[in-house]
TrEMBL record:
This is legumain. The gene is BnaC04g29170D. Its EC number is 3.4.22.34. Residues 1-23 form the signal peptide. It is found in: Vacuole. It catalyses: Hydrolysis of proteins and small molecule substrates at -Asn-|-Xaa- bonds. It is an enzyme of class 3 (hydrolase). The active site is at H159, C201 (nucleophile). Keywords: Disulfide bond, Glycoprotein, Hydrolase, Protease, Signal, Thiol protease, Vacuole. The keyword Glycoprotein applies. It comes from Brassica napus (Rape).
Amino acid sequence: MSFLGHFQIFLFLYALLLLSAQSRKTEHDTESSDDGAEGTRWAVLVAGSKEYENYRHQADICHAYQILRKGGLKDENIIVFMFDDIALNPKNPKRGVIINRPGGEDVYQGVPKDYTGEAVNVENFLNVILGNESGVTGGSGKVVKSGPNDNIFIYYADHGATGFMSMPTGEALYAEDFIKVLERMHLLKRYKKMVIYIEACESGSMFEGLLKTNLNIYAVTASSAEESSSGIYCGYTYPPSPPEYNGLCLGDEFSVSWLEDSELHDMRKETLKQQYQVVKRRTRSSHVCRFGSEELLNDYLVSYIGTNPENKNFSLAALTASQISNLSLVNTREIPLLYLRKKIQNAPVGSPERQEAQKNLIDEMNHRKQIDQNIIEILRLSLNQSNVLDLLTSTRTTGQPLVDDWDCFKTLVKSFKNQCGAKMEYGMKYAGALANICNMGVDVKQHLHRQGNKTQTFFWFPSILSPFLGSQDTAAYTRYVCPDISLAFVLATDMTFLVHFGVDELPG
Ligand SMILES: *[C@@H]1O[C@H](CO)[C@@H](O)[C@H](O)[C@H]1NC(C)=O
Ligand SMILES: *[C@@H]1O[C@H](CO)[C@@H](O)[C@H](O)[C@H]1NC(C)=O
Ligand SMILES: *[C@@H]1O[C@H](CO)[C@@H](O)[C@H](O)[C@H]1NC(C)=O
Ligand SMILES: *[C@@H]1O[C@H](CO)[C@@H](O)[C@H](O)[C@H]1NC(C)=O
Ligand SMILES: *[C@@H]1O[C@H](CO)[C@@H](O)[C@H](O)[C@H]1NC(C)=O
């Protein structure tokens, strides 16, 4: 062996020695920092909705901020996303104030306005958690500048659907994109441990079958992948929101459960597992679920959200007793209807407010009926089968991700929203049905067709083409699916049939 060969072996052994010393050191660090004293605690809070009727999401987020601040986290380490159209909204009976429970204190005071209005979007959110300063636009520019010793807490309250959560502007946050970013953060050693709490309908679908258990990430969701979550402190629940709020919901069930638990107790003595159990018991309308690394379950919450020194008289008895009395809850998707009904009730007979609320209620109910019919028609046409009622929600079983082909799913979700007017509050409850279309082997390819200055979108559903092959008469195959939109089978120039799931014009 040459001198060079020996030298290389020496270098190799030396490197091994260094590495093993390094790994012993890392182990030691891990042990000593479970009290949260080492490393920095970072938090990202996101309210993904806007408009006064969705008051509760921003209220939840502001409340979380107050708990983190009292818990000892610094403003420079807390990043808040909220549209910020609630506190000063003309409809708000307490102008400049946001409360998260009846008679509760103002939670809006002092909340940093890092990302508000249009800056509350998915690109900013993902770049903020990645610590990518050059990727954010608008807002304070604050990002999570975390390293391998830091813990990150993410809390998101919003409207959700199977496979995604909305943002007040732009695209939704899809489970696949979120998970990819989390995996990248793990690879780049951007954190030691991470805890994620999500309040949204079908929030379990953000992690089900997707979040690996070896990333040191522990996630809790308000509901399983297949159920909606619930509002709380509404006009129809006990205890109700004060009458001047006209039936508005002040919070969400899962969120209020963990927030009220955290603000009462000593977080140095409560583990993630204990909080999970308390919150699961208090959240009665949906199944609170947990995902990811079980090793984090025995960590004390102080390592993520801090603790309020005033709470040091904590006892486990108090923890188990902390149940809201006899509250009744409102399924999130029913909230807009109940809100309008309460508004009608509270407005004087014959008043313009009452008439407007009545009209809005009728419009909303008709819209929902239309959406119910549209999705059935879309399933029938794309799958070429008449009995589709079992396919209205996702047919994937526990432990499986919602879809394998996320591009297919995203394409259908966008079209259902843009062309059929499906909104987060109701129509998107059928996102699972759209996922089924992708999972049943329908090849949903998006074809862009430019006509004049207009771009049309087509989807190719080969399963339903054969009956139409040989015919040139496109008009015969136009089926009206969405209110103003035709679902037509169009003979394209390349002699394949395309399903025209979109705008009103057929290509010339
Ligand atoms: C940061 O964001 C910009 C803009 O989105 C992107 O081009 C860039 O690749 C990102 N950098 C990293 C490290 O992710
Ligand atoms: C904690 O308990 C002690 C003794 O019971 C009491 O004197 C003290 O006021 C309590 N502190 C708080 C912050 O409640
Ligand atoms: C809940 O308790 C309140 C006050 O005790 C009572 O007025 C209300 O009827 C109860 N609601 C239910 C659903 O039991
Ligand atoms: C594009 O379409 C719009 C709306 O139909 C029209 O007003 C505009 O003149 C068109 N522009 C061009 C360049 O054709
Ligand atoms: C659609 O379903 C009908 C009835 O089951 C069947 O006869 C036809 O072949 C199917 N079409 C395609 C393209 O699979």
